[in-house]
Amino acid sequence: MRFSHIGLGVLALATATPALADPVPAAAAPTAADSAAPADDGATAPPKAITISGGATLVSDYRFRGISQTNLQPAIQGSITLTHVSGFYVSVWSSSTSGYVTQSGTGSQEIDLIAGFKKTSGGATFDAGLLYYVYPRSRPTGDRSSANFVEPYADVAYTIGPVTAKVTLNYAPKQKALALDQGQSGLLRKNDNVYLAGDLSGSIPNTPIGLTAHIGHTWGPSWLSLGKEYTDWGFGATMTRKNLVIGLSYVDTDGVFTLANGKNAARSGVVASVGVSF
Fold first, then answer.
1. What does the alpha-carbon distance between residue 239 and residue 248 come to, in Å, rounded to a whole number?
2. How far apart are CA 164 and CA 94, in angstroms?
3. Which helix (H) or strand (E) holds 127?
4. What pTM was computed for the model?
5. Secondary structure of residue 99 in the 3-state scheme
6. CA distance 134 to 247
7. End-to-end alpha-carbon separation of the chain, Å?
8. Rounded to an integer, what distance in angstroms lies between the CA atom of residue 1 and that of residue 214?
9. How many helices and strands, by DSSP H and E, does the chain display?
10. What is the rounded CA–CA span in Å between residue 201 and residue 214?
11. Helix (H) or strand (E) holding 33
12. Strand locations in 176-228, DSSP E?
């Protein structure tokens, strides 16, 4: 989830943080002894200590904070999450990418390793953790650049009826992977990055349709920003049928990122997706 500044003009629907599943603890399967025992009205089985969830998605374009990570082409994405009943979770998320998302211009995959804690109290949900972005085989022999980096995050969401509002803050501290000079000048001026986003989501009652809206702002300069800063926004809709989710969203930014083929990877666009979850 990054992009090169080569050919960049100074001035997602993607979130700062990969979407984590929020599994509902399932009831334990009844045993033979349970079947033989008299029914206990009002009694419920305790939640499982650990739940596993995940899914796979095909998207027409992988947008990270409004910027295409796949040369405006489709991507395959997948994730798996282990959640403890206490609220702690670990997750792995991955997507195909284009080579320009790293400094070296090589590599075609992004893997995000995530660990965090989520807790709900009343209508509010608090979530905080650490993201580690990994780009396998992204550095040729002798290349001094760095692609992998860490990014702590925190968000708070509040739900009223079918509508949820969320505010997210991501802060990538100063590290080599975000440095504009990548140490080539011998000075290695490390850079940090801040991303602040707001999201609204809701469902239309008695229908499988969900609606979303997003706005985010990036402060740099770093390898995660278009110049010193830029804004991205979008809105979309989803339709859910059992484990199948179909989505359509509009994504745009106020920045310019010119690709080798002359196209603007930060331009407005419509992103379609189809995914399955378990």
1. 9
2. 26
3. strand 124-134
4. 0.82
5. helix
6. 27
7. 25
8. 18
9. 1, 16
10. 9
11. helix 32-36
12. 191-203, 209-219
CB-count exposure of residue 198 (10 Å: 0-12, 13-18, 19+) = middle
Gap between the Cα atoms of 195 and 42, Å rounded: 46
Output the pLDDT for position 137.
78
> Are 176 and 103 a contacting pair, CB within 8 Å?
no
Report whether 153 contacts 132 (CB < 8 A): no
Give how far Cα 200 sits from Cα of 72, 148, 239, 243, Å: 25, 30, 16, 22
Q: How many CB atoms lie within 10 A of CB 236?
A: 20
How is residue 258 annotated by DSSP? B
Q: Model confidence over 33-62: pLDDT tens digits?
A: 344 444 555 567 788 999 999 999 999 999
Instruction: Summarize pLDDT for 205-254 with one digit per residue, the tens.
Output: 999 999 999 999 999 999 899 999 999 999 999 999 999 999 999 999 99
Say which residue the tokens 């000079």 belong to. Answer: 181
The pLDDT tens digits for 157-185 are 999 999 999 999 999 999 988 988 765 66
188 contacts 208 by C-beta, under 8 angstroms: no
Report which residue type is found at 100: Y
- Note the pLDDT tens digit of each residue in 112-142: 999 999 999 999 999 999 999 999 876 666 6
Reported as type and span, the H/E element at residue 36 is: helix 32-36
How far apart are alpha carbons 3 and 143 in whole angstroms? Answer: 17
